[in-house]
Design a protein that fits this description.
It is an enzyme of class 2 (transferase). By secondary structure, the chain is an alpha+beta fold. The protein has 2 domains: 204 residues, Ribosomal Protein S5, domain 2 (2-Layer Sandwich), CATH 3.30.230; 167 residues, Alpha-Beta Plaits, CATH 3.30.70. It contains 11 helices and 13 strands. Strand 10 and strand 11 form a beta hairpin. Helix 2 packs across helix 3, helix 2 crosses helix 4 and helix 3 crosses helix 5. The two termini are 17 Å apart.
Length: 380
């Protein structure tokens, strides 16, 4: 049964009749990793994997939710003290509260939702959930008067204030602003953005999920962030966004070898995002792929956020003639994102499954993704 049919049927069974259907997408980031907190650029796009909800105002001050995927329900009021205990329901509660805090209108509603965004693969299913409900509440109760950037910030604030995750804006931004066949270059400092056509005829994007997440004894993200901040301070600038490699070389003797490597990656990655945008404008897919491999090498050797399994998958991609491949996300497990020519696809997938299974005792999961629209109302 199609996702849409499943949701409509479950809504009728639980609440009777029909609501209005909304969806928002998971996301990929083609290039631009660990650049967001350094004031740089990211280059995400929404994908054809979504969270979808059927929603109808109920004339009360109570929200009634049913998650098909978890087979769980939750009901809560709209005041701060009404926060639900279930973690999944807090995402929707947080969106309601953050909308109200901004002067928006939210009233009671009934909703059924489900999704096909793979969990744990780094595709931001939580941002898709937040964006779906933020868009829906804006449409149902606020005549779409809340600007799209504010919808993304509602999702981000939900993570910060109700879910305990101090995330950046990229995931929610991509989920709200996603546009079919386009990637979005977002300037994480000014929040200016630009769409770039992502036409890759004869190629496809595929994620290879290692199904591995290494438990970390310290906080590696905070340590890397501190390295970047120390170098920026030594250079007398706010963030590494304003640094060039010549600036870094000039202070190399004054900073630790580790701080040097971390800063080197960030400065080079800033330039790679811009170079990928230029290459796409020229239709130069080979340069896009080469820069993806360079990012993987930097993440593995300079930023040191890779792991054995992800490096192994990257090596297989290179051996199979994949155009570009790199870690996607924070690292230490998760996925590689791969730009694959159609005629190399079957061989690459078969080889990755066979070799990874032989070495690690389980096959990776494979997700083909297509760049698609973000948050939207689904017309019947």
């Amino acid at each position: 049964m199609e996702l849409k049919e499943k949701i409509v049927k479950a809504f009728d069974q639980r609440f009777g009749g029909k609501g209005t259907l909304y969806a928002s997408a998971g996301r990929i980031n083609l290039i631009g990793e660990h650049t967001d907190y350094n004031g740089g650029f990211v280059f995400p796009g929404a994908i054809d994997k979504v969270i979808m909800a059927d929603i109808r105002p109920n004339g009360t001050d109570t929200v009634n939710l049913y998650s098909i995927d978890l087979d769980e329900k939750s009901s809560f009021g709209l005041s701060e003290e009404d926060a639900p205990s279930q973690q999944w329901a807090r995402y929707v509660f947080g969106v309601c509260r953050e909308t109200l805090k901004r002067g928006g209108v939210v009233k009671g509603f009934d909703a059924v939702f489900a999704g096909n965004v793979p969990l744990g693969a780094g595709l931001s299913s939580s941002a898709a959930l937040e964006s779906c409900f933020a868009y829906a509440l804006n449409d149902l109760f606020n005549s779409n008067s809340i600007e799209k950037f504010e919808l993304a910030k509602i999702g981000q604030s939900t993570e910060h204030n109700y879910c305990g995750v101090n995330c950046g804006i990229m995931d929610q931004f991509a989920s709200v602003f996603g546009k079919k066949d386009c990637l979005i270059r977002l300037d994480c400092r000014s929040l200016e953005y630009e769409y770039f056509p992502f036409s890759i005829d004869g190629h496809r994007l595929v994620l290879v999920d290692s199904v591995v997440k290494h438990e970390l004894v310290d906080s590696p993200y905070n340590k890397r962030r501190q390295s970047c901040e120390r170098v920026a301070k030594r250079l007398g600038i706010d963030t590494l966004r304003d640094a060039e490699m010549a600036d870094l070389e000039a202070v190399k003797g004054d900073i630790s070898a580790e701080d040097y490597m971390r800063a080197k990656f960030v400065i080079e990655e800033k330039e790679r995002v811009l170079d990928v945008c230029d290459a796409l404008n020229r239709g130069d897919i080979d340069t896009v792929g080469r820069l993806m491999y360079e990012t993987h090498r930097g993440l593995s050797k300079d930023y040191e956020v890779s792991c054995e399994e992800l490096d192994f998958l990257n090596d297989i991609a290179r051996e199979c003639g994949v155009v570009g491949s790199r870690i996607m996300g924070g690292g230490f497990g998760g996925c590689t994102i791969n730009l694959v020519a159609d005629d190399k696809y079957d061989h690459f997938i078969a080889t990755a499954k066979e070799k990874f299974n032989a070495k690690y005792g389980h096959a990776p999961k494979i997700y083909d993704v297509i760049i698609s629209d973000g948050a939207r109302r689904i017309e019947e």
